[in-house]
C-alpha cells in the first residue's frame, strides 16, 4: 500500500521515442514563468542561477508545462506556486511534507549481498546509486558530515554490497554498489545488475533512488540506461548532479553544458522530468536543499 502510494508520487515511466510528443520544447525556453515561477537555469557563469524567461502562455498551458519540468509534490497546487517554493539549483518544489531534514545521528547497520538479506524493517529508505567515481562516497560524507560513514562501503569486499545506514533512528540511507567499473569483468557487471535490480524491484520500503550524475563529464550512456531502466520499472528517482563546483572541466565541456545535454536527453525520454538538483561535496552546494527534498519524500511516504 505504502509502496503504491509512494510510487504514484512521481510518474516516471519513460516514453518510447516514437511516443514523445513534447515537441514544443526549445532549449532556450525550457525555463518559463507560470504565475511568477522561475525555474532554475543552468548558467554558464554561475551555478545555480535563477533566470526568468519571458515566455507568455495561458495559465493552463503554463500549468501543464510547469508540471512537465517542475517536481511538484503532493499538497501543492500548481496555481499557488511562487518562486520561493522552488529549491535553488533544482526543479524541486518544496511542499507541506518537508520537515526536520538535518542528520543528527547515523549508524552503520549491515551490508547485504542480496535484497532479501537487507534489514527487515518498515522504516523508509533512500538509496544512492551512481557510476564508480561519480562522487557517491563524498556526497554521503557531505550529507552526514562524517568521514567514516562512506569509508565503510569502500572497504574491500563491501563495495559490491548493499550497505544500510540508519539515520536519526528513523530512516535509512542505502549505499548501493557503483556501476560501470572500467576494469570489472563482464561477469561481475552482470552480477551487479542482477542483485541491484532485485533490490529495486523487491524492496517495499524504498522511497526514492538518488541517481548521481557526474556534471564534469558529458552524458554517459550507462547513466541514461540506468535512468531509463528505473523509469520503466516505476522506481522514483532524483537526479543528483555531482561535482558542480568544477567549472572548468579538464577536457570537454563545462558542467552547465553537460547538465543541459543530460536534461535534454531525459526530456526526450520521460513524460515528466524527474526531480533534479545540483550539488558539490567540495563547496556544500545543494546539501541542505537535497536533505529537505529527501525529508518531503520520506514524510509523504511515511504518513
Ligand atoms: P565514488 O567512487 O562514487 O564513491 O566517488 P568518490 O566520492 O570516491 O569521489 C571520486 C573522486 O571525485 C575523488 O577524487 C573525489 O575527491 C572527487 N569528488 C567527489 N565529489 C566531488 C565534488 O563535489 N567536487 C569535486 N571537485 N570533486 C569531487
UniProtKB/TrEMBL annotation:
Similarity field: Belongs to the TRAFAC class TrmE-Era-EngA-EngB-Septin-like GTPase superfamily. EngB GTPase family.
Statement: the UniProt record of this protein carries the keyword rRNA-binding: no
Listed SUPFAM superfamilies: P-loop containing nucleoside triphosphate hydrolases
UniProt key word Magnesium: yes
Cofactor(s) recorded in Swiss-Prot or TrEMBL: Mg(2+)
Name of the protein in question: EngB-type G domain-containing protein
GO MF term (any one): GTP binding
Domain annotation EngB-type G: ranges: 122-300
InterPro entries attached to this UniProt entry: G_ENGB_dom, GTP-bd, GTP-bd_ribosome_bio_YsxC, P-loop_NTPase
Keywords: GTP-binding, Magnesium, Metal-binding, Nucleotide-binding
Amino acid at each position: 500500500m505504502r509502496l503504491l502510494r509512494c510510487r504514484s508520487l512521481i510518474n516516471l515511466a519513460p516514453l518510447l521515442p516514437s511516443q514523445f510528443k513534447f515537441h514544443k520544447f526549445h532549449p532556450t525556453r525550457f525555463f518559463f514563468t507560470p504565475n511568477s515561477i522561475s525555474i532554475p537555469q543552468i548558467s554558464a557563469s554561475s551555478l545555480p542561477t535563477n533566470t526568468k524567461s519571458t515566455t507568455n502562455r495561458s495559465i493552463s498551458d503554463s500549468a501543464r508545462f510547469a508540471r512537465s519540468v517542475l517536481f511538484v509534490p503532493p499538497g501543492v497546487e500548481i496555481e499557488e506556486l511562487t518562486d520561493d517554493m522552488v529549491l535553488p539549483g533544482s526543479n524541486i518544489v518544496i511542499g507541506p511534507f518537508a520537515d526536520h531534514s538535518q542528520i543528527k545521528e547515523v549508524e552503520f547497520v549491515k551490508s547485504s549481498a542480496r535484497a532479501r538479506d537487507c534489514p527487515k524493517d518498515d522504516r523508509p529508505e533512500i538509496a544512492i546509486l551512481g557510476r564508480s567515481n561519480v562522487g557517491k562516497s563524498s556526497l554521503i560524507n557531505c550529507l552526514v558530515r562524517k568521514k567514516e560513514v562512506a569509508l565503510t562501503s569502500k572497504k574491500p569486499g563491501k563495495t559490491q554490497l548493499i550497505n544500510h545506514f540508519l539515520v536519526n533512528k528513523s530512516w535509512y540511507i542505502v549505499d548501493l554498489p557503483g556501476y560501470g567499473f572500467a576494469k570489472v569483468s563482464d561477469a561481475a557487471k552482470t552480477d551487479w545488475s542482477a542483485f541491484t535490480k532485485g533490490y529495486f524491484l523487491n524492496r517495499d520500503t524504498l522511497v526514492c533512488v538518488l541517481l548521481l550524475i557526474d556534471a564534469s563529464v558529458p552524458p554517459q550512456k550507462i547513466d541514461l540506461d540506468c535512468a531509463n531502466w528505473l523509469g520503466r520499472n516505476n522506481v522514483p528517482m532524483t537526479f543528483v548532479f555531482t561535482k558542480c563546483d568544477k567549472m572548468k572541466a579538464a577536457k570537454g565541456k563545462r558542467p552547465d553544458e553537460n547538465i543541459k545535454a543530460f536534461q535534454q536527453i531525459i526530456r526526450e525520454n520521460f513524460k515528466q522530468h524527474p526531480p533534479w538538483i545540483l550539488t558539490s561535496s567540495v563547496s556544500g552546494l545543494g546539501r541542505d536543499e537535497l536533505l529537505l527534498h529527501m525529508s518531503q519524500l520520506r514524510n509523504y511516504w511515511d504518513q
